Amino acid sequence: MKERRLKPWVFGIAAGSIFVLAEAFLNIYPPSAYAFCLSCHVRDLLNHLANTVTGSRLLTTEVGGRAFLLTSPGVIIGALVAARMYGESKTRKASKPLLFALTGFVIMVIGIVIFGCPTRLALRAGYGDVYGIAGLVGLLAGVAVTTVAMRLWSLRGGR
Amino acid sequence: MNAILLSLAFMAIGLTVGFLAQRSRMCLVAGLRDWILVRDTELLMGLLSFLATVWVLSSVLGALGLMHRGIPEYLAGADHALSATTVAPKPAATVPRLNLDSLPSPSALLSNLFLTTLGGGFLIGVLSVMVGGCVMRQHVLCAQGDRDALCYLVGFYAAVPVYYTLLERFFGWVYR
Fold first, then answer.
1. Which residues in chain B are contacts of A120 at CB distance < 8 A?
2. A144 touches chain B (CB under 8 A)
């Protein structure tokens, strides 16, 4: 089981190559660094859908106005296929449904405002986008602070 | 026809990344978390190799003239023709790029958008650690049958209409 797993560094190289090559050869611009983003692509998908159906004029990026950005459903289906193929899918009951829904909501709102989910912040940082680097630094700082805080909290007997 | 092909291309990107992410358990926030907690560098290497690959490839392709670099996040008014479905927001935020010829001006680094991106990234980091994974990881967990991640995604999708009907007006200051 363990040895059939893919090493994360292989994922990094594969995903990074796919994103950059897709942008260069499929004309995925503007904006730049836009071959993969879960917040922005979901935003563009839903808004473009609403624009097509109801004729509204909700905001999409230029690429999002040209096509349906099916990245997020694609990730779910791809992961579903992989999980089924290797027998790793098992249903786990929701422990805190409301907390998770609220967190997803807040993360999407932030993602819309700052143009990116964690993956795209990293992608933009790799492109040398100053705001992307700022977002990634903020992200990592948030992760570090929270991890240390939770560690201290559990050491002091909380939870 | 072109639109259909492009949509399918995005589907294919999603499928590939979803498959690989499930196989590697990749998560962008878990890398640093694991390193802090148990000094496990495996997932952190995923993030670093991702950054390195993007940096090298985009630089090489950029030098070959294949990349369209420096395009602002949203179309900035008169410079570009707006397509029918695209609505430009307030004066668009042009994104300064880090290269040695022209470093971004200090005023760009103190703009509202820069500080919001820093703070927003921080908040995403805090929340992602609390729910145990970045957005991509939640997609994968949902596909594996985790109902918590499904609830996360419901909130994630629901935020789009809510943002554009109710919340957008509160965030205009970010782009000024």
1. none
2. yes
B175 touches chain A (CB under 8 A): no
- Exposed, middle or buried, A134 (CB in 10 Å: 0-12/13-18/19+)? buried
Longest dimension (CA), chain B: 52
How many other C-beta atoms are found inside a 10 Å radius of the C-beta of residue B166? 9
pLDDT in tens, B22-32: 999 899 999 99
> Which residues of B are less than 8 Å from A95 in CB distance?
148
**pLDDT for the residue numbered B95:** 47
The type of residue at A94 is A
Taking CB atoms within 8 Å and a gap of at least 24, the contacts of B89-94 are: B89/A59, B89/B175, B90/B172, B90/B175, B90/B176, B91/B175, B91/B176, B92/B175, B93/B175
pTM here is 0.85
Each residue's pLDDT tens digit, B131-175: 988 999 999 999 999 999 999 999 999 999 999 889 888 888 887
Contact A118 B136 (CB under 8 A): yes
| C-alpha to C-alpha distance for A100 and A54, rounded to whole angstroms | 31
Interchain CB distance below 8 Å, B84 and A129: no
What is the nearest CA distance from B111 to chain A, expressed in angstroms? 10
ipTM: 0.90
Q: In the numeric block, which tokens belong to residue A90? A: 């098992």
